[in-house]
Automatic annotation (TrEMBL), chains A, B:
Keywords: DNA-binding, Transcription, Transcription regulation
Biological source species: Chryseolinea lacunae
Family annotation (Pfam families): TetR_C_33 (PF13305), TetR_N (PF00440)
Domain HTH tetR-type: 12-72
InterPro entries, sorted: Homeodomain-like_sf, HTH-type_TetR-like_transc_reg, HTH_TetR, MT1864/Rv1816-like_C, Tet_transcr_reg_TetR-rel_C_sf
SUPFAM superfamilies: Homeodomain-like, Tetracyclin repressor-like, C-terminal domain
UniProt-listed PANTHER family: HTH-TYPE TRANSCRIPTIONAL REGULATOR RUTR, TETR-FAMILY FAMILY TRANSCRIPTIONAL REGULATOR
Stated name of the protein: TetR/AcrR family transcriptional regulator
DNA-binding region: 35-54
Amino acid sequence: MTISTRKERQKEELKAKILQTAKELFMEHGYEATSIRNIAERIEYSPTTIYLYFKDKDDIFYALHREGFVLLNQYFRPLSHVANPFERLKAISKAYITFAIENGELYDLMFILQSPMDALKKDKSDKKDDPDWEEGNRAFAFLVNTIEECIAMGSFKGMNAEILAFTTWSMVHGVCSLEIRNRCSVISELNQKDLAQRACEMINEILDRSHNYTPS
Amino acid sequence: MTISTRKERQKEELKAKILQTAKELFMEHGYEATSIRNIAERIEYSPTTIYLYFKDKDDIFYALHREGFVLLNQYFRPLSHVANPFERLKAISKAYITFAIENGELYDLMFILQSPMDALKKDKSDKKDDPDWEEGNRAFAFLVNTIEECIAMGSFKGMNAEILAFTTWSMVHGVCSLEIRNRCSVISELNQKDLAQRACEMINEILDRSHNYTPS
DNA sequence: ATGATTTACTTAACGGTGTTAAGTTACTAT
DNA sequence: ATAGTAACTTAACACCGTTAAGTAAATCAT
């Protein structure tokens, strides 16, 4: 028994090593420039070995995808102590953009690249209630709950919490993705990250005005 | 003279034909699945011929990029007749998302793909005042001008027009890019395009509340 | 203990990609 | 007529993701 569990462990170790190496290369050079052959070379195995542990390239990046959400939740965790739900909402949007700027390639993988979504489509038909998606659901649920609390306090009168959560996410994602995919430099002379920061502050300002709003 | 002008014309015709074929294939199958060899095969030339007309693959897609902005401006054109600047702003955001949904692949090229930005980086150092970028500038200027008119009318008190324009663009881009890159289906049971539409309406609602806002 | 089977991995190959160096043809100018 | 140029092609390089077939060692069954 102990000998077969050792083998089991070694298999898992190799799988983890492939994943970690993929992550390193991906962080260094991005998705396009990371090849199965590169990964194989760095871990000193033949490229085909990787296919014994992962279905295909998308499958590897789908696994990294999950790690991204774990990290994002770490950025969110301290914010659960912010008592005022509206302050918490603004803190979430700030933490989100900080995460995006500090982990550009990972953000790209999680929210821009098609690849991990393709992997999801291939063998998972359930989508939402898949255990790999748990961390993603947790992150989004935190946002939805915060907005529900805002509404319970009388903010955002007449708005649907889930739609507003998606909309808020869209707004900050818009800033982050334009920054990551280099669309900021083209329209403004400002430093790119400054522009992103100022846009994010403005989103908070707009949310502020919107949540305080009382029809006249 | 007339014989050499004919040759000149034929060269331009072939260049246009390459571009049009690239566009067709790109619209049908997306960026990744469109290869130089595919294009060459369809126009019945050898793949290397394409390199006599375009520097590389990015260069081809950068050219299509420009056409995308021409089309976007066509969506915007009728809106210049909307007299009320705030109504015009909301109409712009609606037209933008309609453009994105009706021309998904083109939108992807213009605002998501890295490729055309790489082409821009390669041989253009001026960036903003490059003639190829004229149509893009026109589209953004239309948004900035509209917001400036809003501010002149007393809306969005205390906000910077350019930053607000960028922020507004970010907000609608966020919705469009999440939809195009398949991140909607994961978080909601709603039909993807419905979700995008509702998010866009909510952005207009938020802008509405924000522009009506008077500090209490 | 020995033969059969399974496990873990590799070699070699397929069909594709973007790109370039060298070669070919046909037209043009002297 | 000949040298030169313009337009295009052939062949190749160095990659890519992926798979079929093969190998060597460990394990299992008799």
